[in-house]
Design goal:
The chain has 495 residues and is mainly alpha-helical. The chain contains 19 helices and 6 strands. Strand 1 (28-32), helix 2 and strand 2 form a beta-alpha-beta unit.
Length: 495
């Protein structure tokens, strides 16, 4: 993304300063690759020059036209530009400026595409190989496939591939500072669980962090909240689904099996959003504000709302780099775009067939909703249908193979008992309280109560000590859980 900046004439290392000094006052200037018109604006203001701009980026052209410093601005492809095709350029110019243009021209397009294709295949090939269940379970003497399993490889792959594609398309400059590029790719707070941030957005906050004691406090509290989501809620609630999966057919009723699937959906949400909270909190401690990855509630009124709020940075990445190549006005093209986008998202979560089916299920549901239910009316039926589809998706995303998935889904679709069993009561007594706590947590109602409390004068006076007390309680609870489990914490999705 291009943005307006002010040229510092005292900076002798800036190429724009040299171009400014070489241009005589009152000249007619053709600015090739004018970007946002920073140089031409300076020439028009200081030297009374008349400028014509050429730019390939649409956003840059719009910015130039709004600034009104050019006599004329045209959006053209600089790689295939011929002055003879534009009769208006038969006029003469005193100065033709080509500042920072040559590095964006790709005369060897086929070689560039070949290098880009090789880079994409290398990144995703390594991801699929190292994320495969076969390699993870491989054991041969002292060698174990787990030793080759790099945490954070999935997010590293997305950001690295996105950077290469943006450089190829000319949206950003190729970064020559390897320290800055390494900081972008390996910034550890978001390396494990994201969020995915484009280079043009991340470089501004990473290179110019804003340190503030209040922001550090917010970051630490956000980290503790995310850790509590994972340790206290997600780990405990996940045992409910594991208990149901390990039981024999007919042990539990149909209602409890569906309740277990929805509990697993909440588990995935709490776990993934907890990791995102921890990443965002650590980023705030370093003075870097990362974008939000999850919505404030799990109760989605539609599948479109789910796609917009569930791990949104990852969904946006695949929609931008995969889905946009297939979309069109045709319904079948839109279907193919949805299936391709969400199929890739499913494989990104785990390189196995149930994960692929999860992506295809979500993509197909989004297409049907777009085709049959376009209005914005949020009914109770729509809420229920969305919850049912997402619960099925949670089963697909959590179980390792189709046999396990089919064993559980077979009970969900009606082969289980309708009447409650004695085993149901035992499970509800063990996990009922944590289930209700998770429902309240994912509903987001506590945010409404917090906003209402902030309207009271007594709460505003006690907000700081209450925040410190909440942080201490969270720290104590998380520490107690880690001590109880011996410091061993499992991850549902090893991203």
């Amino acid at each position: 993304m291009l943005y307006v900046r002010k040229i510092n004439l005292k900076n002798r290392n800036d190429s724009n300063v040299l171009l400014y000094e070489m241009t005589e006052a009152g000249s007619r200037v053709l600015d090739v690759g004018c970007a946002c018109g920073d140089l031409s604006a300076l020439l028009a203001e200081r030297k009374n020059c008349r400028c014509v701009g050429l730019e390939a980026d649409k956003e840059g052209v719009e910015v130039c036209r709004k600034r009104r410093v050019f006599d004329e601005v045209l959006q053209i492809d600089l790689n295939n530009f011929a002055a003879a095709d534009y009769p208006r350029f038969r006029q003469s110019f005193d100065v033709i400026v080509c500042g920072d243009v040559l590095e964006h021209l790709r005369q060897r397009k086929h070689l560039s595409r070949l290098v880009l294709t090789g880079s994409i295949l290398l990144h995703f090939g390594a991801l699929l190989l190292l994320r495969s269940d076969w390699l993870f379970s491989l054991k041969a003497g002292w060698f174990s496939g787990k030793s080759l399993f790099p945490l954070g490889l999935a997010f590293f792959t997305l950001q690295s591939v996105g950077y290469c594609i943006d450089v190829f398309r000319g949206k950003i400059h190729g970064e020559k500072n390897w320290r800055q590029l390494g900081l972008y790719l390996l910034f550890y707070p978001r390396l494990i669980m994201g969020p995915v941030v484009s280079y043009s957005v991340a470089v501004k906050s990473l290179c110019t962090p804003v340190f503030d004691i209040a922001r550090v406090g917010q970051g630490l509290l956000r980290f503790l909240v995310g850790l509590g989501k994972k340790l206290i809620l997600a780990n405990w609630l996940g045992m409910l689904f594991q208990t149901l999966c390990q039981a024999d057919t007919g042990t539990y009723s149909l209602m409890l099996v569906w309740l277990g699937a929805f509990a697993q959906l909440m588990t995935l949400y709490l776990e993934l959003s907890g990791y995102a909270d921890m990443a965002i909190g650590l980023g705030l401690c370093y003075g870097v504000r990362l974008p939000e990855s999850f919505g404030k509630s799990l109760f989605y009124p539609s599948m479109a709302a789910f796609a917009d709020q569930w791990n949104r940075t990852v969904v946006q990445w695949f929609s931008h780099y995969v889905g946009t190549h297939f979309r069109g006005k045709n319904h079948f093209l839109y279907l193919f775009a949805m299936l391709a986008t969400w199929g890739c998202i499913g494989l990104w979560y785990g390189f196995r067939l149930p994960s692929l089916l999860f992506g295809l299920l979500i993509g197909g549901a989004l297409w049907l909703e777009h085709l049959l239910w376009r209005n914005s009316y949020h009914s109770v039926i729509r809420y229920i249908l969305t919850a049912v589809l997402l619960s099925l998706g949670a089963v697909l995303l959590s179980l390792p193979d189709l046999q396990s998935v089919w064993s559980y889904v077979r009970i969900m679709v009606g082969t289980g008992s309708l009447a409650p069993t004695e085993a149901d009561a035992d499970v509800l007594r063990a996990y009922g309280l944590i289930f209700l706590a998770a429902v309240y947590s994912v509903s987001g109602n506590w945010r409404y109560l917090l906003r209402r409390a902030e309207e009271q004068s007594w709460f505003r006076l006690l907000r700081t000590p209450l925040t410190l007390l909440a942080a201490l309680l969270l720290l104590a609870a998380n520490t107690a859980f880690l001590i109880q489990t011996g410091g061993a914490v499992s991850m549902q999705l090893l991203l």
